[in-house]
Amino acid sequence: MSERLEAQFAFLNEADRLKSVLRATTLCDGSRAENSGEHSWHLALYALVLVDQADPRVNINRVIRMLLIHDLVEIDVGDVPIHSAGGQAHASEGTLAAEAQAASRIFGILPRDLACDLHALWTEFEASETPDAIFAKSLDRVQPVMANLMSGGGTWKTYQVTADQLQARVGRKIARGAPHLWDWVRVKVAPFFAC
Amino acid sequence: MSERLEAQFAFLNEADRLKSVLRATTLCDGSRAENSGEHSWHLALYALVLVDQADPRVNINRVIRMLLIHDLVEIDVGDVPIHSAGGQAHASEGTLAAEAQAASRIFGILPRDLACDLHALWTEFEASETPDAIFAKSLDRVQPVMANLMSGGGTWKTYQVTADQLQARVGRKIARGAPHLWDWVRVKVAPFFAC
Fold first, then answer.
1. Residues A45-49: contacts with CB under 8 Å, at least 24 apart
2. Which of B159, B193, B126, B188 is nearest to A10 (CA)?
3. Which residues does chain A have within 8 Å of residue B8's beta carbon, measured at their own beta carbons?
4. Taking CB atoms and an 8 Å cutoff, what residues of chain A touch B46?
5. Computed over its alpha carbons, how large is the radius of gyration of chain B?
6. Beta bridge partners of A14
7. Contact B173, B137 (CB under 8 A)
8. How far is A61 from chain B (nearest CA, A)?
9. pLDDT tens digits for A20-33?
10. Which residue in chain A has the smallest CA separation from B111?
11. In this structure, are residues B122 and B132 in contact, taking their beta carbons and an 8 Å threshold?
12. pLDDT tens-digit profile of A127-172?
């Protein structure tokens, strides 16, 4: 048991580093950049509170688990902002390969059974094909939108995002997993992109 | 639906403030104080990884939910470090009353059904009588111990904590919900309290 606990805590101590990975998005009050640890917490809370926006097939407990681990790869790769490099960096081949390598290293710290379970859950999230992963991705897209709304524009200003770019990079993915939610959010967002 | 979403997001935006509540404990690398938002994420990850330490009656999904919301009251009350004021402040009558008032205000932002559910879950955590709450409390006690171990003593040095005080304020609660875990942790901790 001791060896197993050593591996479990080696992982949990390594995970602590996610609190030092900074995102482009700020806190709602604009006071500082958000880190990926607190972002993951906020997203899990989003899932808990917005469960009624999910497709009935969604298992919200699995969604919460996905969201708790979805950004751990950023310990090695850093956060790649969705609007950076003209929207081309976030899902580039290079970023995806680096994240896959990071997932193997970081989940590999765990005892084998846990490593397999959590690595598979992360892979499912990334593939974004199951109802659980699709809903989790929607929440991951909507939370920075709310932070930008609260902080007066946030990363939309930083990266000079247009309404079309927001629809393509963000709106489409929110609508895929939570269509009613995007209908509501897009009305809030519209004034920021008015000419 | 629109009114419901307004309330859900009013709560989620208010929750963002937990990222600005600082704890006495630092990150594992000692670089800065941990905030209560990222602490809540780390604890939920603890639950996910240390589920095999829980009593078989424990529902780990409920534990994760408890840990996601357990510190929200600190938005109003702040973090009251367990070793501060000679260990007397943390569960003082004044602190508990202020936290109860904060819970009513903060969960009360939500639509009624969600407000009732999450307020009840927080009350269950605080009462620490059910298997789920007892295990959640154990994790809430063990995570700062690991941070102190990693950072070379942390709050044990700040507050000049003795071995007996650690046993009374921390060890007893870890052992209540996760006895094997405390058996393992206490061996790691011992050198810090050796004469």
1. A45/B12, A45/B15, A45/B68, A45/B69, A46/A139, A46/A142, A46/A143, A46/B12, A47/A135, A47/A136, A47/A139, A48/B65, A48/B68, A48/B69, A48/B118, A49/B8, A49/B11, A49/B12, A49/B110, A49/B114
2. B188
3. 49-50
4. 12
5. 17
6. none
7. yes
8. 6
9. 999 999 999 999 99
10. A49
11. no
12. 999 999 999 999 999 999 999 999 999 889 888 999 999 999 999 9
The model carries a pTM of: 0.97
Dist. CA A178–CA A173, nearest whole Å: 8
Dig out the tokens for A75 from the structure: 């310990």
Lowest-confidence region among A14-18, B10-14, B80-84, B102-106 = B80-84
Between residues A193 and A37, the one the model is more confident about: A37
Most B CBs within 10 Å, among A9, A40, A75, A187, to test the B interface: A9
**Do residues B26 and B147 make contact, with C-beta atoms less than 8 angstroms apart?**
yes
Dihedral sign, Cα of residue B156, residue B162, residue B168, residue B173: positive
Which two tokens mark B53?
Answer: 């330490």
Nearest residue of chain A to residue B112 (CA atoms): A49
Q: Is B22 helix (H, G, I), strand (E, B) or coil?
A: strand
Mean pLDDT of B3-12: 98
**In the structure, what pLDDT confidence band is assigned to residue B1 with cuts at 50, 70 and 90?**
low
Q: Are the beta carbons of B19 and A42 separated by less than 8 Å?
A: yes
Residues of chain A positioned with their CB less than 8 A from the CB of B183: none
What separation in angstroms does the CA of B136 have from each of A172, B67, B75, B173? 37, 7, 20, 10
In this structure, what token pair is assigned to residue B174?
């870890």
